[in-house]
Amino acid sequence: MSQSVRPSLTLESARRVLDLHPQAAEIDLLACDLNGILRGKRIPRDALDKIFSDGLKMPRSVLCLDIWGHDAHDNGLVWESGDGDGACKPCGEGLVPVPWSARPRLQMLTMMQNLDGSPFACDPRQALASIVRRFHALGLTPVVASELEFYLMAGDSVETGVPRPPKAPKSGYALDAPRVYALDELDEFDAVLSAIRDACAAQNLPSEAISVENGRGQFEVNLLHVADPLIAADHAVMLRRVVRGVARAHGLHGTFMAKPYGDSAGSGLHVHCSLLDKDGRNVFDDGGEAGTDLLRHAIAGMIETLPESMLALAPNLNSYRRLLPGQHAPVTASWAYENRTSALRIPASGPKARRFEHRVAGADANPYLVLAAILAGALHGIETKAQPPAPVSGNGYADDAAAAPLPTTFETAVAAFEQGKILRKYFGEQMMRAFGAVKRQEMEELRRRVTDVEYQTYLGFL
């Protein structure tokens, strides 16, 4: 199911929303950086007109900071260019309320431009927009849906530095075992999950199913298909803000870390995608179960680009704790029909709903860059009429699976991204340099840090 076409975002439409919320004195303006962290400013409501005319001015380098908020010195945006400003212009769903805020407030996504009005190539939303335009030039429209997993934790987990599951809010039992799809656990967390659902509705986020997953305190929210990858990515970005904000309001902590507990399931960001032609026909549908040649071309392109795309799909050191053998996450560049052990799955469905599911990305990844990497791979396969290897059968996680291994460490993923030739044609040189610089800087900093487990293991014996 896809959302219906939405009206375009204009100053007049934003003013109408503002009129519906007379108590909201302030507006949060949000811009997504390369790590998927929302940055921006809080402005008074009477500054709305100026934001639509001039945009929100911020240094362009703000979108290219490392995970700790430090400048990435090799990104070409600080010392070489004088750290100039960009202008963040409203985009996405426009003004929406912030239901978890104690004081009435509105928020709005923005996308950064250069001051001359051209797209700022290091804005991850702009990177996705550029690839979507290439699909449109071929008369094709990607239809995208996502599934996001996350953990709810005890509210003091960040303060104490010790992540731990909360107790069941009603019965008080310990979350000490997986309770996948347990309806009783949905009932236990009804207050926070219903508030997440209500906040999604208030912000026009098309949430569908909410389910209990395999981890202790782990849940999943499914977002409906949208015939606009930019809006689909907006929805995923804003869902993460909803979960964290609502959880905090209920005395909990919500996290999208890929692997917050070493002995529990990781959290993924699974993406479903089909392609429509100008007449609205699904070009992956051949009337049967196999799908069209175009589907196989797309699969082949994604298989080919998976190694150099891993840094966008798994962008943090912790991401690779999820990508270990036996952890129910893909570690090979594989595809299959109705097989959840493959990286790319063709789900069982009616022919008109023929699509692929991309199962590699972690929930910690930037949704804009995830979709950009996936769609770049698909487009590469379509443009080159690439042919995929044979689909895997049986256990795609097995060591003897007939598929090439993927980078499964932060270091090898950074190297594969920097050395990649295909993704560079779609991301552009400026984005490749900026994202690579951010991740290499993070990797080198983490190499210098000695962990508690190293002290516990070695200090008393060596």
TrEMBL record:
Keywords: Ligase, Magnesium. Its cofactor is Mg(2+). Residues 124-462 form the GS catalytic domain. It comes from Rhodoblastus sphagnicola. SUPFAM superfamilies: Glutamine synthetase, N-terminal domain, Glutamine synthetase/guanido kinase. InterPro entries: Gln_synt_N_sf (IPR036651), Gln_synth/guanido_kin_cat_dom (IPR014746), Gln_synth_cat_dom (IPR008146), Gln_synth_gly_rich_site (IPR027303). It holds the Pfam family Gln-synt_C. It comes from the Bacteria. One of its GO terms (molecular function) is glutamine synthetase activity. The keyword Ligase applies. Transmembrane segments: none annotated. SMART domains: Gln-synt_C. Coiled coil: none annotated. One of its GO terms (biological process) is glutamine biosynthetic process. The keyword Transport does not apply. This is Glutamine synthetase. Belongs to the glutamine synthetase family.
